[in-house]
Automatic annotation (TrEMBL):
The keyword Methyltransferase is annotated on this UniProt entry: no
InterPro entries assigned to the protein according to its UniProt record, in alphabetical order: Ribonucl_H, RNaseH-like_sf, RNaseH_sf
Protein's UniProt name: DNA polymerase-3 subunit epsilon
Any one cellular-component term (Gene Ontology): cytosol
GO MF annotation terms: 3'-5' exonuclease activity; DNA-directed DNA polymerase activity; nucleic acid binding
Amino acid sequence: MFYLAKDQMSGQARAMPQGKRLDWPSRFAFLAEASKHPSLKAFYQQGVVAASTPITEVSLVALDFETTGLDPRRDSIVSIGLVPMNISRIRCNGAKHWVIKPETRLHPSSVMIHGITHSVVEDAPEFSTVIDTLLAHLQGKMIVVHYSAIERRFLHAALMRHIQEGIEFPVIDTMEIEARYSRTWRQTLWNGLMGRQPSSIRLTDSRTRYHLPYYRQHHALTDALACGELLQAQCATHFTPSTPLSALWS
């Protein structure tokens, strides 16, 4: 995960739209008819679980990208990590990790963050070679991320470049959940007058509040695992087994 600064994270979370929720099952049915690429069509044909489904019955997959920067118009994916799960179990035997040859320049600043160097990506596969496998692992599952703009925008941009079709999908965003439920995030007027800042909702800082262990940052597979565990902790703290999916997704 290519982390934003703490002040950028806070602003992004506040700016998240809270408008009318999309009818995702109907949208997927429409996109299944409209899509031309076989793997993308299969992704949509698998459908999406109804918003009323209890979270305990939902198949999930935690997803994380490392990228060459933060702008999908100028930057690209350099590694992908995913971990299948549900709210009670992490299925590590199904985890996948790819290092991808980026389509754009590998910036020194991003190398310092994720440690993926030019020599590492020199013989790495192109993104086009993993599209079918990646979409197969995502289909039929609710995708879990920490800060949805990265995975949604970068996957859409990568598919547009390679198959001339973008992608739409709902997510459960653990950063958005943390923004909602972190007690210190809800500042009172008094806290504002005293100059107290809201808690950081970055992945590592959020995990600390639930007494989850520290993991190495900026590795796509480890961050996907960390995101999945954070969701489990959030569900155990803030929700019940009968909580509908609609209470969690963004």
